[in-house]
Design goal:
- It is a single chain.
- The chain has 472 residues and is of the alpha+beta class.
- The C terminus is likely disordered.
- 46% of the residues are buried.
- The strands form five sheets. A seven-stranded antiparallel sheet has the order 3-4-5-1-7-11-10. The chain has a three-stranded antiparallel sheet with strand order 14-15-16, with helices on one face. It has a two-stranded antiparallel ribbon with strand order 2-6.
- Strand 8 and strand 9 form a beta hairpin.
- The termini are far apart.
- The longest helix is centred in the first third of the chain and has 28 residues.
- The chain is built from 14 helices and 16 strands.
- The radius of gyration is 23 Å and the shape is globular.
- The chain binds adenosine-5'-triphosphate (ATP) and magnesium ion (MG).
- The site of adenosine-5'-triphosphate has 21 residues, from strand 1, strand 7 and strand 11.
Length: 472
């Protein structure tokens, strides 16, 4: 059966630091992350009078409590679009960081602002990358979640961002850093699947028809191909579950324990205990999910994106099974990063030196084309791409064209161009002036709407002079 059309969105929180940022005139106090975040958002607040704004590409950019700027992509109905929109977010934040660094310099602070697309900051605080998937209301949500959790636990052998863990016997490379933090944070919690899926019921759509599945356990992805695989494979497993296929035979006895065990085992062969008493490794489980997805799709007319996801899924598993990591070491974050560290080790003839390793790991996640590694690696073919630079540049101002994001983006664009007050969230559009009604857009799949056309026309129309009377 052909994959169902689905809405996807990615929320990415960024770590923020200022290198060396010692103010020359204000004593020796370094610039805190909070302060750096305020500098970062100065222009956003000046333009939108808020640190929580919707942009003309349909995305949401905001600074929550704490100091992690967040970019939530607009709704996409294709995972390739998710990649493009997510990368556009990096570009937007990079521009803000450059401007904020210039403001810091004006205020006598040396040092640049760095934004890190990672999951743990230098103080050890964990932050997230949340995946959003639209699912139909008619299914049994608890069952869907229960049967998805073991897939989420084991997919990190492909989609983990990779990290070095310090152990008493020395540094060890593992698939995911976030998993370790999730485990530490939640090992005492009673609801064992809680940290993987946020169960808050906030569909941002017609609640009679839809739910929004909010996956919060994944690593942020730097490589576009990892983002593509992460969202694509999860969408395909959701297809399976929504078509009525049961995956209950793969439910884990203790998912929280397993999330850490899987992260730590680069062979992916450690047996995990299933609820029914059987034992399967993460590798075997992922092979099973892939086999069931392929059986489900048998004979279907697949898109290029689906084919690319399936091919990378299969090749990633082969790389783990055979230990031939070079099969995916330009596409999957953990393998790209491992190759980087291995090369460093060979060049310098020593094991992971803590300081150098930490610096290399930071640079991997630094989204700046100047200070981070990704831009150079992409240019040299060491990190594969999905989107072209032109597509990413365009997505900074152009929303996805096939979902509700187009309505929102076009409206925000018109309101900004004509300097009209407006209020927007995922489902509401309102022109701030008196007498205008709020337009409710409950269908995230709808990219045309006459009510929104009228709203855009009203936003673009010349305003009557105050008092409404014609000049005498
Ligand atoms: N109906 C939908 N189904 C799936 N995803 C959606 C839907 N509507 C919006 N999204 C996506 O969900 C994400 C929502 O991001 P947002 O940061 O606002 O999350 P939230 O969970 O609502 O709020 P917060 O992060 O403040 O707790 C966006 O990426 C958006 O594109
Ligand atoms: Mg959010």
């Amino acid at each position: 059966m052909r994959p169902a059309r689905r809405i996807y969105g990615l929320e990415t929180e960024y770590g923020i630091t200022v290198d060396g940022g010692r103010p020359s005139e204000r004593g020796a106090e370094p610039v805190s992350a909070d302060e750096a975040a305020r500098y970062l958002f100065r222009k956003v607040v000046a333009l939108g009078r808020s640190s929580n704004v919707f942009l003309r590409n349909g995305a949401r950019l905001y600074l929550d409590v704490g100091s992690h700027p967040e970019y939530a992509t607009a709704e996409c109905d294709d995972v390739r679009d998710v990649v493009v929109q997510d990368r556009a977010g990096e570009r937007i934040l990079n521009e803000l960081a450059d401007e904020a660094s210039a403001r810091l310099a004006e205020d006598g602070v040396t040092g640049r602002i760095h934004l890190l697309k990672s999951n743990v900051d230098s103080a050890g605080n964990a932050f997230g990358c949340h995946e959003n998937y639209l699912i139909r209301r008619r299914g049994d949500f608890a069952r869907t979640v229960g049967e998805l959790v073991p897939f989420l636990v084991t997919r990190q052998i492909l989609t983990g961002a990779g990290t070095v863990r310090t152990t008493p016997s020395g540094p060890v490379y593992c698939f995911s850093q976030r998993s370790e933090h999730l485990w530490e944070a939640m090992s005492s919690a009673t609801t064992r699947s809680r940290p993987m899926i946020n169960s808050r019921d906030e569909p941002h759509a017609d609640p009679e028809l839809y739910r929004r599945l909010h996956v919060i356990s994944g690593d942020s992805s730097v490589a576009e191909t990892t983002t593509l695989l992460k969202t694509g494979m999860t969408g395909l497993v959701l297809d399976l579950l929504e078509s009525g296929t049961r995956l209950g035979d793969l439910v884990l006895a203790d998912p929280m324990r397993a999330i850490r065990d899987v992260a730590r085992d680069l062979t992916a062969r450690t047996p995990l205990e299933l609820a029914d008493g059987r034992r399967l490794s993460a590798l075997e489980m992922q092979e099973e999910y892939l086999a069931r997805v392929l059986a489900h799709l048998d004979g279907a007319d697949l898109s290029d994106t689906d084919r690319r996801v399936l091919e990378l899924w299969e090749r990633g598993l082969r790389a783990v099974r055979t230990g031939e990591h070079s099969l995916v070491d330009t596409e999957l974050d953990w393998a790209i990063k491992k190759r980087l560290l291995d090369r460093y080790r060979t060049q310098h003839g020593r094991a992971f030196d803590e300081v150098r390793t930490a610096r290399l790991l930071l640079a991997y996640h630094d989204i700046s084309p100047r200070d981070g590694l990704a831009a150079t690696m992409r240019a040299r073919g060491l990190m594969a791409t999905v989107a072209t630079d032109e597509e990413v540049a365009r997505a900074v101002t152009v929303p996805p064209q096939t979902t509700r994001a187009k309505l929102r983006g076009d409206f925000v664009g018109a309101a900004q161009d004509h300097r009209r007050d407006h209020t927007v969230d995922w489902v509401h559009l309102k022109l701030g002036d008196l007498g205008q009604r709020t337009v409710l857009c409950k269908d995230p799949f709808a990219s045309t709407d006459e009510r929104v056309d009228r709203l855009i026309a009203a936003a673009s129309a010349p305003r009557a002079p105050l008092g409404g009377g014609a000049p005498a």
